[in-house]
Design goal:
The longest helix has 15 residues, at 53-67. The chain has a two-stranded parallel sheet with strand order 1-2. It is built from eleven helices and two strands. The mean pLDDT is 85. 50% of the residues lie in helices and 5% in strands. By secondary structure, it is mainly alpha-helical.
Length: 195
């Protein structure tokens, strides 16, 4: 979404909510997002959750293996190949390393937003103590802590057992179509076979 009108359409059904928000991991890497967010809402609260850069890159590679036309033998080969790409940007390269170089990314926000509008957390802290992690977020956005959240993991990455089949299903857009026909139980069974 690049148009403000289209962006606002995302919140069309909001009526009585006291807070509205959204998430995109692309905002941290973007060189313009911090300025654009501030221009749009000077009082915006920014939550940044950082993952160990190596774990982040590996998870990103696993996601690419599962969902894109990628057939690589190893994570290291993917890193080396991506580092050879000169023009680094979404769609031009995978940014396996660059997305984990947090200093400049965070500084873009720290240089624009007041400190009290920024919350920087670590993904490992969420894994270690979810209650404490979510309490920090609730305190930051000034809402009561809601402890009845789901701990179910979504979009868990996995290495395809049959990479060429995975590419074939993705290229022909059969994967989404097939998944739309299956029950959740059947999807789980199929994922266990394919990954």
């Amino acid at each position: 979404i690049e148009d403000e009108e289209d962006y606002l359409e995302l919140f069309r059904e909001a009526n009585t909510e006291k807070l509205l928000g959204e998430i995109s991991n692309g905002y941290l890497y973007s060189e313009v997002a911090a300025k654009e967010i501030y221009k749009f809402n000077k009082k915006a609260k920014i939550i940044i959750i950082l993952r160990n850069p190596i774990d982040r890159a590996f998870s990103h590679w696993l996601m690419d293996l599962r969902g894109k036309d990628v057939c690589r033998r190893s994570f290291i080969e993917a890193i080396v190949e991506d580092q050879r790409v000169v023009e680094k940007w979404w769609g031009k390269s995978h940014l396996y390393v660059e997305l984990g170089l947090y200093y400049d990314q965070i500084m873009r926000y720290m240089n624009i937003f007041p400190e009290e509008q920024l919350l920087i957390l670590l993904y490992d802290d969420m894994v270690e103590n979810q209650n404490k992690f979510y309490q920090q977020i609730c305190q930051f956005i000034k809402i009561p802590f809601y402890s009845d959240y789901s701990t179910k993991r979504y979009n868990v990455a996995g290495v395809p057992k049959y990479p060429l089949l995975n590419i074939f299903l993705n290229k022909l857009k059969l994967k989404k179509f097939l998944l739309s026909l299956l029950t959740n139980q059947q999807k789980t069974y199929l994922k266990n076979i394919l990954y």
